[in-house]
Protein 1
Amino acid sequence: MRRFVSCCYVILFSWFGVSLTGCGEKPQAKTRLELKDIPGDIMKVAKEKLPGITFDAAFREPNGSYELRGKDKTGKVREIDIRGDGTVEELQ
């Protein structure tokens, strides 16, 4: 019985220690940009893929991609992620 309780403590404290210290590096956050700082070719792709959207927010992802957010005429939020070479990664 004593061995069982000791094992439970070891398991509990090792799990607790991992939860306090984490399991790796903290992921990098997006960097907010002004719309004027978005390269022209990236903005052109965004406007072609999402015509009629008024973009109001821009971010630079840690992997170098750009994320643009805006709203359509009905107020629905739309988002597009574009790589630096102009390739669309995601369209919402």
Protein 2
Amino acid sequence: MRRGCARPACGEAATVTLSYGYGSATVWLEPLTPEGHPMTHDLCDRHAARTVPPRGWELVDLRQVPAPLAS
């Protein structure tokens, strides 16, 4: 069964898991974890791309970035 985006009224499939740590004031975006967890949020690509951390927090994107094509 596919997991959907956690944003209200979004019907897209989740592709990213968002987690956060209050102690370190950090928000992490990572590839979708195999199983959901109550302390994380699953997002679609569109909502993950629009994620902005609270003021004073750091956003760490752990998703794979495709390597540039060789010319």
Protein 3
Amino acid sequence: MSPTMIVAGGTVIAGGGLAGASAACVLAAAGRPVLLFERHRGPTDKICGEFISAEAQRSFDRIGIDLAALGAHRITAVRLVHRNEVVTGALPFAGYGLSRRLLDEVLLCRAAALGAEIRRGESIRLRQNCGPLMLDTPSGVELRPKTLFLATGKHDLRGLRRNAKTPDDHVGFKVHLRLAPAQIAGLAGHVELIMLPDGYAGLQLVEGGLANLCLLASNKRLRRAGGTWEGLLEDLLQTEPHLHTRLGGATSAGKPVSIFRVPYGFVHKPAHTDAPGIFRLGDQMGVIPSFTGDGMSIALHSAVLAADLHLAGSTAAEYHRRMRGDILGQIRRARALDRIATSGAGRLLLMRLAAAWPAGLRLAARLTRVPPSAQIYHRLGPPASPKPDAGYFA
């Protein structure tokens, strides 16, 4: 039996996370055939600070997601912490905290309701990107889509690896915790950034009263702590007074997840050798340091912008040029801030500046966000009503 082919004009999306699922929503709402592959069979936690900025909220408005209705925790202030010193400042917007486990599933369900076909527990493999795209599935079905939206997050698809520089020697961890009632009350409405000798940690509430602890530490420190999450956490509790207080009496609400060698600062640079039908979304397009908390916004912006430009007939090259222009300055500024926050002298300078000029925290937040002027897709009007889909396979 010959392999089944995807019908001409169909779009395949690799990855059902924030970027992939959001793009599927926009394309399916416009009546376009969409086939999305997500390697996880069910809800899963992702390495993410789970902070939703005002820019991300505008993208969710376009997709039709009501964050408050999902129980997202409202955040209006930031605390910068170094040892026993704490500086608090108001954010230039009201943000939200919401877990990726919940959010990604909501987006996938919405995409399916709009007409997208979702394949769970399956990963695709690139066979050919020179000339017509050719993709293989675990079931042996061959796909020949006109367009591929690459939304595999920090994990590269074989044959389409990012041209990223060697990343720094840091390990990222994320875990959800149930804090003691007094600590929930103390954390409410804030995102806390705790600067460590060789990295930083972020702590905030998400839905259901859970707290997200997300941190970046050097591989050297992890090895000193025995090479395990439990050892690293114990080390942090012994050396960081603020975390010792916040996490006193806390219990785990799930298994920690980790990632290594993330190419922070990467921004895809369009080249004439790029495959014409491949749109890079989210971390496949650009990776912002987690210290600034705008990774979700970039993922959403890339998804909605790519879908809108594709619907308007623009090429992948045009999208990549536009997206690079939107985020390059932001990511460079965030990278500079990240380097300051992870150096000894830089941490002290940052704390002194924040204490003397609290409005500087608001300015830093603005400078490391997706520019509102970049989100012109909100002026294109609401998505069209879903149209009947004849199916993907011929």
